[in-house]
# Entry
Amino acid sequence: MTVQHKHLIVRAEVKKPPTDQKWAHTWLTDLVSKIGMEICQGPITTYLDIPGNRGLTALVIIETSHIALHCWDETDPGLLQLDVYTCGELKTDVIFEEIKQFDPVKVEYKFLDREHDLTEIDL
# Structure
């Protein structure tokens, strides 16, 4: 494997933010498989019921780095933040396809090459 240092950061306003920890565990496990990675530890998921900061947080450590998911469901639309960092090949098309199930109304992203600098990559 050639080390690549790719980092995808997604901010999505969604109509269906996830709230179930078990569902998030399965979703992350499936996502790791779909993008061709292997799990080292996790997923770890939690739901915080703190007014003003209520939502789901999940993390999985993959053999090439990590995937973090943070969702807030108090707002309308909800907010989903997804962070995927890997030292391997990153299948961004699969990730954006998976985000569709949250019924996004707005999706923004940055795709970075972190090999030597923080260079933005066009998809």
Summary: Residues 6-118 form a domain with the S-adenosylmethionine decarboxylase fold (CATH 3.60.90.10).
